[in-house]
Amino acid sequence: MWRNRGNVFDLEMDPVRKLGLSFAQGPQALVMKDRTRVYFSTRRPDSNGKPISFIKFAEFSPDFTELLNVSQAEVVSNGGLGAFDEHGIFPLNVIPVEDEIRGYSSGWSRRISVDVTMGIGILSSRDDGLSFQRIGSGPAISASPDEPFLIGDPFVLLQDGKFHLWYIYGTDWTRDSGGTPERTYRIGHRESDNGMNWEDKGKSHDLIAPLSPHEAQAMPTVLVSDGKGYLVFCYRETFDFRNGGARSYRLGIAASDDLVSWTRLPQFAEWQGDGWDSQMMCYPNIHVRGDTVFLLYNGNDFGKHGFGLAEIPLGDFVRHYSSGGSPHRRATSNANSIFKTKQF
To answer: Residue 272 pLDDT > 80, yes or no?
Structure first.
């Protein structure tokens, strides 16, 4: 069903290698007229040698057969001292809204007792997404009594005049057998009339039924065709997930008739071999161009080797994942062949 295009943004390929990128995590597509821009999170050490993350982008031809450009500068600076995004952004989801490109950031900062806390911020670009400015220095959505930890991984879709937000929230921190805190999170949903103020109806928690009590779900991304929604995400176990194997990240999918209630489907697609994505598949992002569905994702080591691509005809996608199997009319998404690179 899916055509696996492989690691289309390999950090070791020329001329990407000369940029010295250490990761390319959480790829997020912006579909433009003559290209597709993919925002990603990469890393560098701070003055104390601890990693911080920041956002760059790579631009591809519409069919992803040619890498056109990689940004030299960061598209937005990290937050200031004590800010929710002081130590980085991962990921940055983008969507055209009237005369701007709106960005929804997953900002993170370090804590003492646990590794990290997160919140969702809102950014705006007036130069076609080349750079972004914050709309306020604090998060638009952060922890609450019902969602106590780790608010992040935003994905925004404008559907029938209403903004929909899918995101993750932490349910708990639990110590493993060695005493190290590990996090579990699930997927939530909110709506907005303007994409700025988000309503929490109190019915949007645990959208996707977990396969185990300690399943952590991340990076939701949604496609809508003929009014039916398809939510692709990644999932793993809370403990012992970092080194590959059955407890590491895999891709899942759920379907919905109203974008609120979701039914988890038995299986997504798996095509791991013995290469860059043989141990895990994570951090998906799905978009449509013409009659093709493109899936961006990270492989082994959480994006240390870049990101890959798979594709499927939209009609085949709908027939395979829809119980009705009816022909599609239109689709909405935020949204190995010969591969060429330019000397940018």
So the answer is: no
